[in-house]
Design goal:
about 200 residues; 2 domains; five-stranded antiparallel β-sheet; 3 helices; 5 strands; elongated; disordered N terminus
Length: about 200
């Protein structure tokens, strides 16, 4: 019986450690994604009241990035994302600046059609209105305010964080408590049987 309890305790301890590490793998990156994401949203809100300068698109092209991963069958799957590379110039107090920030929290890449549409919106030579930070004129955007792209990073971070916390606070106690309860139940049942056996011999 003691060996069974030791094995159960060892299994429970190993499972708890493994699940704790699993929870950390999700929760830690999630927390790290939330902080910069919230900061970008705050900056986006702030940018609505930034001063505006006249600007010109000086460079633009669609850039692609290909990543490879292995699926469950061991096959290599390649995925290509496309992103618009827009650079514009503007002047503040007689000094010329360049920026490639379209909006705060912007996506780096997505589908090719999305990237092509943005390039059509901002062709080279196009005049643009540039909102810049009065405290740091190098920080500028041509689409000020909070947008849907800005929510992606903190939203994904929150999902990772909540999943990690759920594993830690709910899954780990539930999965590690069950073997202990089963062992306790077996011990109680065995004890009752022994008591009945001793009582029968005494008679």
């Amino acid at each position: 019986m003691g060996a069974v309890l030791l094995r159960s305790s060892g299994t429970k301890s190993g499972l708890g450690i493994g699940l704790t590490l699993f929870a950390i793998v999700f929760a830690a990156p999630g927390a790290a994604m939330i902080l910069p994401g919230v900061f970008r949203i705050w900056r986006g809100y702030e940018s609505r009241s930034w001063p505006v300068a006249a600007g010109t698109v000086v460079y633009g092209r669609v850039e692609s990035s290909t990543s490879a991963a292995t699926d469950d069958d061991g096959r290599i799957v390649r995925t290509t994302s496309f992103g618009p590379r827009v650079v514009y110039s503007y002047e503040v107090h007689g000094k010329k600046y360049f920026s490639n920030t379209r909006r705060l929290g912007q996506l780096a890449g997505a589908g090719e059609d999305w990237a092509e549409e943005l390039m059509e919106k901002y062709p080279v030579g196009a005049a643009v209105k540039v909102a810049y930070s009065p405290a740091d004129p190098e920080l500028a955007v041509i689409e000020p305010g909070i947008n849907s792209e800005a929510w992606w990073l903190p939203g994904a971070g929150l999902a990772f964080l909540l999943f990690g916390l759920a594993v830690y606070f709910f899954a780990i106690p539930a999965l590690t408590r069950e073997p202990a309860l089963q062992a306790q139940t077996r011990g109680s049942t065995s004890s009752r049987r022994n008591d009945r056996s001793r009582s029968a011999r005494n008679r």
